[in-house]
Specification:
alpha/beta, 2 domains, 389 residues, 8 strands, 10% strand, 6-stranded mixed sheet, 50% helix
Length: 389
């Protein structure tokens, strides 16, 4: 675990304080147990991200403060547990969510009490193609962390530009268990060439004289032997499970207490790893179920897990909204006439909660996404945050 933690810090730089003692509460959204190729595309909507996160605190949150929030939402008294589904009140997207009174109460509570949130999110589609770049033997000058991320991001944009053709290639070459690597790289070279002829490529890369795709194509021609990270895998299985984000958080915040919502598959995986760590536990979010199974801790702990469900649900909807927007529209977001005063006020508070959290500790935000998405996220929040490859 120490080696894993050192590796995380080395890859990210000393940008956050992982030695501090916090208390984290976790839930997740977008966990479809795995991410795979199908006959028509992917096993789940690739525009929706996996998110693991919730509320994090150094000072105690009083039961009275939590009850004040719970009592402001009448449904909380009629439900076994308060979930994001209740808070969203039927909202179809993030701008719609900003109009909902229950959500406004939650954001106002976080904002006024100066509470922090933490979040780790993964773009499944992006994560599914990074092993292509990692399997190539680049010169050492291209193996800085930033360059590595840049190359992966450029390839991802090419693959995403012609998704249907890319997915067909993945299927016919048994990706990510590629036997004929020359054929696979030839197909991928076609994907890049198609993208480089597009207006999107010219808008994003040509004016900047960016050579990343040329570098990748050159490496395709120099590849010898197999692609090491694209062997001995299950054909079509792009992500086996989502245990890794849990493991990374446990390893990184070794001096903190981490409380996760019950997730049987992850619990079994971690048990098999024999971590020997005592800094984490899994609990039932529902108080009645926790009492029934003799896993009740206290009302506050279970309610903060429920609150974490609301936070990750909101973050998932926010990320999906950013991912669906064209980058050219970002400059007009603050002046958008389609958002009323209440939406803008709630959005400003949501942004403040994120910014305050990352200012407290930049490790509260971690992501596995491409550069363009991170630039869009940072633009929406109005802050320059570190980017993880």
């Amino acid at each position: 675990m120490t080696d894993l933690r050192d590796c995380i810090i080395r890859l990210n730089g000393s940008r956050g304080n992982s030695d501090e003692s916090y208390k984290f509460f976790f839930d997740e959204t977008g966990n479809n147990r795995s991410f795979s190729l199908t006959r028509t595309g992917f096993s789940s909507n690739e525009s929706k991200f996996f998110v693991l996160g919730g509320i994090v605190t150094k000072r105690d949150i009083s039961s009275k403060t939590i009850k004040r929030l719970w009592n402001s939402i009448p449904e909380s008294n009629r439900q076994e547990e308060l979930k994001f589904k209740t808070i969203r009140q039927g909202a179809k997207n993030f701008p719609d969510l900003l109009k909902k009174t229950h959500f406004q109460k939650v954001v106002n509570w976080l904002y006024k009490n100066y509470y922090w949130i933490h979040f780790y999110y993964i773009d499944n589609f992006y994560f599914s193609i990074v092993d292509i770049v990692d399997s190539l033997d680049f010169e050492s000058k291209y193996w800085t962390q930033n360059w590595n991320h840049h190359l992966k991001s450029a390839l991802y944009r090419a693959v995403k530009y012609n998704k249907e053709k890319s997915v067909d290639i993945f299927r016919c070459t048994m990706y990510p268990d590629v036997e004929d690597y020359k054929l696979f790289l030839s197909f991928m070279d076609d994907i890049i060439e198609d993208f480089m002829r597009s207006d999107e490529y010219k808008r994003r890369y040509l004016d900047k004289r960016d050579m990343s795709l040329e570098v990748i194509r050159e490496q395709f021609t120099q590849a010898r032997g197999s692609l090491p990270f694209l062997n001995n895998n299950t054909p079509g299985k792009l992500i086996d499970d989502y245990t890794a984000p849990y493991l990374l958080r446990i390893a990184l915040f070794r001096n903190s207490k981490l409380v996760f919502d019950h997730e049987l598959e992850v619990e079994n995986q971690l048990e098999r790893l024999n971590l020997g760590n005592s800094n984490y536990t899994f609990v039932e979010s529902s108080i009645p179920q926790a009492k029934e199974k003799n896993k009740f801790i206290d009302d506050k702990t279970h309610e903060l897990i429920q609150l974490s469900d609301i936070i990750v649900g909101t973050m998932g909807m926010f990320l999906e909204y950013i991912n669906s927007d064209d980058v050219k529209t970002l400059k007009n977001i603050s002046e958008s006439m389609t958002w009323n005063a209440s939406q803008r006020e709630t959005y400003d508070k949501w942004k403040s909660v994120i910014k305050r959290s990352v200012q407290e500790n930049s490790f509260f935000k971690e992501s596995v996404t491409d550069e363009l998405f991170e630039n869009k996220f940072n633009f929406y929040i109005g802050e320059r945050f570190p980017v993880k490859a």
